[in-house]
From TrEMBL:
Signal peptide residue numbers: 1-17
Keyword hit for Nucleus: no
Upper classification of the organism: Eukaryota, Metazoa, Spiralia, Lophotrochozoa, Mollusca
SUPFAM superfamilies: beta-lactamase/transpeptidase-like
Full protein name: Beta-lactamase-related domain-containing protein
Keywords attached to this entry: Signal
Recorded coiled-coil stretches: none
Limits of the Beta-lactamase-related domain: 32-140
A Pfam family this chain is assigned to: Beta-lactamase
Length: 180
């Protein structure tokens, strides 16, 4: 894995290097450039907003009792449309409409989108949650593989697992009290 990353980063002729060199902080922070609606590069938001958006997707288009997206729309967005080798990513990928599939630390499918400089946001339909990792700096990682993101994601799922276990254990304790 690391050899692939190093190979991609050191090769000035690959698509990743060419694309990364074309986008500078001066361009990405220019207010006029941020107003241009280019779906693949001009997503600007907060970590809370991105996590909420992916949480809505992971919950079948719902937030609380309000339905924002139909099941048909959710299916259209989240069904894989392409599985194959990627010139950009340097390996096999699975994609939906604007969503990339990856695995969480428990080896379950999640879908989301990595961002320039190490940002990452995704929805987890198994656990009905959204998570976003946005930074104020740019890293060399851009495919959901930033070590800082991966460490945070791992701890996030460790906490989630503990919460789920405590709910199960509380339910079992309640059942035992009810039976006695």
């Amino acid at each position: 894995m690391w050899m692939l990353v190093i190979k991609l980063l050191l090769n000035p002729n690959n698509l990743l290097s060419k694309a990364s060199n074309a986008v500078t902080g001066q361009i990405t922070n220019d207010p006029y450039m941020r107003e241009i609606a280019i779906s693949s590069v001009s997503g600007h938001g907060t970590a809370r907003g991105m996590a909420k958006l992916y949480g809505i997707l992971a919950n079948g288009g719902k937030l609380g009792n309000k339905q924002f997206l139909s099941q048909e729309t959710i299916k259209s967005l989240t069904d894989p449309k392409m599985i194959g080798e990627s010139l950009n990513y340097g390996g096999k990928i699975k994609m939906g409409r604007g969503l990339y599939y990856s695995k969480n630390p428990m080896d379950e499918d999640v879908y989301g989108h990595p961002g320039y400089g190490g940002q990452m946001a995704f929805g987890d339909p198994i656990h009905n949650i959204g998570m976003a990792y946005l930074t104020n700096d740019l890293s060399a990682f851009g495919y959901g593989n930033d070590p800082k993101f991966l460490a945070l994601q791992k701890e996030f799922y460790n906490c989630l697992s503990k919460i789920e276990k405590s709910k199960t254990s509380l339910g079992t304790q309640f059942d035992m009290l009810s039976a006695s």
